[in-house]
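Quick one: structure tokens for this chain, please?
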Amino acid sequence: MAEFPSKVSTRTSSPAPGAGASASVLRPDLGFVRSSFGVLMLLQLALGLLVWALIADTPYHLYPAYGWVMFVAVFLWLVTIVFFTIYLFQLHMKLYMVPWPLVFMIFNVTATVLYITAFITCSAAVDQTSLKGSRPYNQRSAASFFACLVMITYGVSAFFSFQAWRGEGSNAATSQMAGGYA
């Protein structure tokens, strides 16, 4: 058997000061904000905020139906903020082991289904819980309208994320160059 050499010469070096600092800086990707996914997420955030703000300004705690609408609106609003932050700062590129197109598609499909139930619940409860022409009636009606719009934006996002997951409309090279969003 060959003997392991008794002396092994190793050389180590440390990076120059400040060389690794630029790699850890988070910079927003403004291209994402201009993309279809970015615009849809901004719409979802704005419209979702309107839904839960309008409901929260009424005595919703007296009616269980509005508790469900509030849960859906606030929960999906917060999760959308998390996804928006992940894509804005390109954290999805650093967490490459996560299948982001699949995760994003599942989230959008789930959000669409949840907002369908919230829209139906909110719309059905307006007449039963408010007097026509009163302030709570108008706010709950407006919340139903905006819930419908948010439902549509999540549905469109689900369609686009399904296409991105399947890889339709582009090849692997263009999807890599685009940062994973259209």
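The mean pLDDT is 86.
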